[in-house]
Amino acid sequence: MSFTTWIAAENFYNVFLPIVLIVGLSVFLVLVFVLSYARWKRAKYLILLFIIGAAVSGIYVIEKHDQYSAYLEEYSLINPLIRDRRIIFGFPSYYSSRENRIYAQLHDIESLRNLSMYEEKLVVEELQYLGKKGHFHYFDYNGQFFKTAKKITFTKSTPYAQIIGSHFSLADADYQTIGFNKELKTMFNTILVNENSQDVIYEPIPESQVLPEEIVFSHWNF
């Protein structure tokens, strides 16, 4: 979705539509009041004008809703990880710093893949597989030892272990002007290990030297 289309859709749902509903309800209440005192002949014209106005407005709203339906689908996916604000009746309502901190660690790869303003780029980092012990798999990444309980995929398609993620960035920088985050942390996808290493047993090193994956890959969300 283009930036201009997003702005138009956002204004339609958060500014134009509420105004139409408020004005329409106000006119209806005034019409009811007037009709209680007006003669039937004059009342017929007022009713006809109201029906015509409501029909024209209704047709326009339906056409615009069909045009901007994709906006509603994408808007439902947005959270503080992705954007720093909500739009309520045309005005920004900013998320709190606490919400931003919590959501900054969110692994929300599916939402990002379904947002048209973001581009996905595959990230691959080489690892050394050290083996398995209990529920954990152990790895060496550039001299840093870490363990993970996440499911590992053993395959013959890779000659060495690798961690794979997705990096998302805005396809159109204009979205940044309305609160979308330009650069996000890399979202974890999977870890691949050569199938010949499937039976490797981890040779323990001091546990104090083994770090959680979130520490070694601090720029990733797991």
Please sum up the structure shown:
By secondary structure, the chain is an alpha/beta fold.
Please characterize this protein's 3D structure.
This protein is an alpha/beta fold and 222 residues long. It folds into two domains: 3-75; 108-221, no CATH class. It is 38% helix and 28% strand. It contains six helices and ten strands; from the N terminus they run αααββααβββββββαβ. α1 packs antiparallel against α2 (40-67).
Total number of domains: 2
Largest sheet: 8 strands, mixed
**Structure class:** alpha/beta
Give the overall form: rod-shaped
What's the pLDDT, averaged over the residues? Answer: 92
Total strands: 10
Topology as a string of helices (H) and strands (E)? HHHEEHHEEEEEEEHE
Query: Which ranges are low-confidence, i.e. pLDDT below 50, for 5 or more consecutive residues?
Result: none
Radius of gyration: 28 Å
Proportion of helical residues: 25-40%
- Beta-strand content bin: 25-35%
Separation, N- and C-terminal Cα atoms: 28 Å
